[in-house]
Amino acid sequence: MTNQIFPTKSNLISTKKSLELARLGFELLDRKRNILIREMMLLIDDANVIQRQINVTYSQAYDALQQANITLGVCDSIAQSVPVEQSLVLSARSVMGVEIPMVGLSPAPKELHYGFDSSNSLFDLAYSQFHEVKLLTARLAEIENCVYRLANAIQKTQKRANALKNIMIPRFEQTVKCIADALEEKEREEFSRLKVIKAKKEGSFA
């Protein structure tokens, strides 16, 4: 860069402005990276909590289903009356320009799709627990997708910040120094030349 820019005051001013913009860009990218990291860490904490809740709820659901199978016989026919879940809703939100997916189930009251004469409280408990697992799984899927998107955004932001910090900013600083040194040297030469001219003029008048 230093070999391509002619050492003039206008080029010095222009390069200093580019340097200021590069430093500002680095600060903004660094701030964005920190915000994204903080957001991702909070989501990871939430994911750990939800995963534990899913494990506990799954365990309770299977225990209740096992007890229902013992008291009612195999519950396949009852389970087949429960419709396939089709209320999944996808949307998105933005965090520092990063599109984050949102996964959920459309709000609807929990309904029983089987008759009370063919079930008991243990089966009802199993159904309720599996319904809760379904809601938790949708939330966990959302969080895991968010973490994945944020991790990619953090990596890209880090690369851009590193490019500014380690390449562009030092390059602009070096260019500013070279132009400033060249202009200073030019001013010294001009000053020396004027002194010589002045001395010759004074000598010619003597």
Which key terms come to mind for this protein?
3 helices, 206 residues, mainly alpha, Helix Hairpins
Q: Would you kindly provide a written description of the structure presented here, covering whatever features stand out?
A:
- This protein is mainly alpha-helical and 206 residues long.
- The protein has one domain (9-201): Helix Hairpins.
- It has 3 helices and 2 strands.
- Helix 1 runs antiparallel to helix 3 (121-205).
- The radius of gyration is 35 Å and the shape is rod-shaped.
Structural topology:
Elements: H1 9-72, H2 76-79, E1 88-95, E2 98-105, H3 121-205
Antiparallel strand pairs: 1-2
Helix pairs in contact: 1-3
Task: Tell me the strand order in the biggest sheet.
Answer: 1-2
Alpha-beta content class: mainly alpha
Number of strands: 2
The stretches of 5 or more residues where confidence is low (pLDDT under 50) are none
Looking at the overall shape, the CATH architecture is Orthogonal Bundle
Q: Give the SSE order as H and E letters.
A: HHEEH
- Bulk shape: rod-shaped
Strand content: 5-15%
Domain module count? 1
Helix content: over 70%
Number of helical segments?
Answer: 3
Q: Assign the CATH topology.
A: Helix Hairpins
Describe the biggest sheet? 2 strands, antiparallel
Main CATH class: Mainly Alpha
Short description:
This protein is mainly alpha-helical and 206 residues long. The chain is built from three helices and two strands.
